[in-house]
Amino acid sequence: MNFQCPNCGQPLEQNETLLRFLSENLANGMVYQIDSGVDGRQRAFSYLSPAIERMHGLKVDDVLRNPMLLYGQLLEEDRLMLAEREAIAYTRRTPLDVETRVRLPSGEIRWRHFVSAPRLSPDGRVLWDGIELDITEQKLKSDALLASEKRLSKMATELRRQSAVLKQKNVALKEVLAQIETDRMETKKLVTVNIEKSIMPILRKMRLEAGPKDQKYLDLLEAVLKDIMSQFGARIASATSLSARELEICNMIKSGLSSKEIAQMLHLSVRTIDTFRNRIRKKLGITSKDESLYTHIQSFSWKASGANVEPY
After folding, report:
1. Of 103, 136, 169, which marks where a domain is finished?
2. Phi, psi of 267 (to 5 degrees)
3. I need a labelling partner for 165 at 20 to 30 A (CA). Which of 146, 222, 223, 245 fits?
C-alpha cells in the first residue's frame, strides 16, 4: 500500500513499519483494508495486520490470496445480516458498524466488532479502512447483565402478582372477619335474650322462696349471669392469665363477697381464699397494698386479646 501525506502530498517514510507497529500493539484488535472494486461486489483484502494470526488463527498471506478463509469464519446466521449492512453502507457511502460472531479453527465462538469507513480511490475503486475488535468478554458481561435484568423483571412481575393475590386474600379475610364479628354479636344478643327471658324470671321466683343464706348464692348467680351478658368473664380471661378458679373468685369479689363468704361458698379456708386473692392481685398488676382489689376489678378497662385461661 502507498499511503500519502495529506498535507505534503509525498509518500510517508516507514509507513509500513508504523502501521504494523500500531496494528500489532492494538489490544484485542486488528486493522485491515478491503478493496470492494468499482461496483462494491469484490471482497479482496489489500492489507491485513499480522494480528490476524492471534485473532483468527490464520496466516496473512493465506487470507490475502483467499478472503473466504476469513469470511468463512462468520456464523451462517450472521452472514446475511453482514451482507445487508455492507450493501447499505456501500450505497450510502457511510461507515459500517456491526457486531458478529466468528467460529475459530479451534471451534471456539467469539464476538467481534467491525468498524470500517469507505473512501474512493483515484481509479474509482471503493476502499474500506477498518478495525476489528474482540468484544467477547464485554458481550458475555452484557448478556449476563441482561439475563440478570430479565430475572429481576420476572421476579418483580411475580411479586406484583403475589401482591395482587395477597390483596385479594386480605379483602376476603376482612370479609370473613366481618362475618365472624357479625355472628359473634348475633350470638351475644341471642344469649342475652335467652338469659333475660328464660333464666332471670326463674331466678326471681327462687328469691321469693329462698332463705337469707340462699339469697347470697342467688345474688352471686345473678351477678355471674349479668357478667355473661356483659362479657366480663371473656374480657378478663382474654386480658389476663387467670385460672378458672381465680376467675371464679374474681367474679365473687366483683359481686361484693368477702373472703369469709367466698370460703364458705367454695368450702375452702379463708387462708386459701387470701392466697388466691394475692395471686389475682399479682396477675392484674396491682403492686400497691393500698389499692382495693374490688375497686380495681370494678374499674378495670379490659382489652380484647387471645384468651389465655389456665386450668385450676
Report:
1. 136
2. 60, 45
3. 146
